[in-house]
């Protein structure tokens, strides 16, 4: 008995192998932590994958939110093109968006990993997504992409649940993102004109349009023009117009080039009627080497340089020389306040339908008869068209500049095509191109455009090539007619450098 008690005492006091107990316990904890790190890593990876997908879908959809009537449907289609994978979460390994057919109430056989909600503005801290949600394409400025919840089970940690007496670690991953689109037109002539419903510049390239000043009384109709930024808050404070005011400021904003205005947002602009006291056609016509009225004396100012091709069919009135052959540059050849029709040159023609009066504001792009007259008058009867590949008047204008290579465009004519009043032409041939805000002045704006208005949505910024000097009808105040050819859309996601230095760009970004 004493021997047994002694053995028990020795065993109780024996410390040999004690570390094995702690090692075993530590090993269990260590393996548990390793298993937990695997599971946490899988959860983190799933969340990263879902967030990346949410960001991509939101950006793709936001890129289509231009305010047009089909903006939301195009955004949904763009979202459907984005696919991704999630590796560890439940619910399969592919991620995709599918728009649920409203006629399919139960959504049978339709699976979408993300829900898109369109927003009129970014929600404030006190607002929810539902507070700012909209289904109107014209108001949809942002999109919220919410990826459905994906469960991530604890595959490795589950082994230790029975040993540790705790529930299996299970996590869930979800993600959301908000993105928006801004189309900004920076350093452009602050002009707008009303376009017909459904108008797209890309479908009207080469079409002539007669843009006429819109009055402050009656509602504006297609073809009426007005001005942007009535409060002049968009004037570039580092450009040539910064220190001007009144009529001289208007003259600069509409006639100068480079660094004129800050950026206009296509989502909404402020407008005013196209009638202004003290405003006349001469402001636009410096582009044609014509320095009249308020623009007199600016011919040596490079901010008001003319285009490199100023063929217009108008010359200085000179009673002592009926042919008025221009010989070299100099003030003697400035048109000034006296002008006359050129005896042997003409400007680019209007669409033929304007000549027979079968169209009023918008033409059809057919100028074939006028083109024959242009070639015969400027290049000689019976002479083959020197630029047969030029389709539009703008193409023809550029072809003439290229062929001249800095020299005279026309020879033995009253006009050479080069400036004779200004000492040098602008280096940019797009000096005769205006970027104009195209606005639907009827139904889609939600209100009839009339007089001065704020936050008017722009359908697109349109590039208009001036084909002839701007004219006035002699009324008081005079009503101006701007004849131009539509040469494309500036709201196409790229940037275009025009005669005003203007840049139009899409800005798609994540906000949250």
Automatic annotation (TrEMBL):
InterPro entries assigned to the protein according to its UniProt record, in alphabetical order: Tad_N
Domain Putative Flp pilus-assembly TadG-like N-terminal, chain residue ranges per copy: 17-63
Name listed for the protein in its UniProt record: Putative Flp pilus-assembly TadG-like N-terminal domain-containing protein
Transmembrane annotation, as ranges: 20-38
Region Disordered, residue ranges: 315-335
Keyword S-adenosyl-L-methionine among UniProt keywords: no
Composition skew (Polar residues), residue ranges: 320-330
Keyword Transmembrane annotated: yes
Source organism (scientific name): Thioclava marina
Keywords: Membrane, Transmembrane, Transmembrane helix
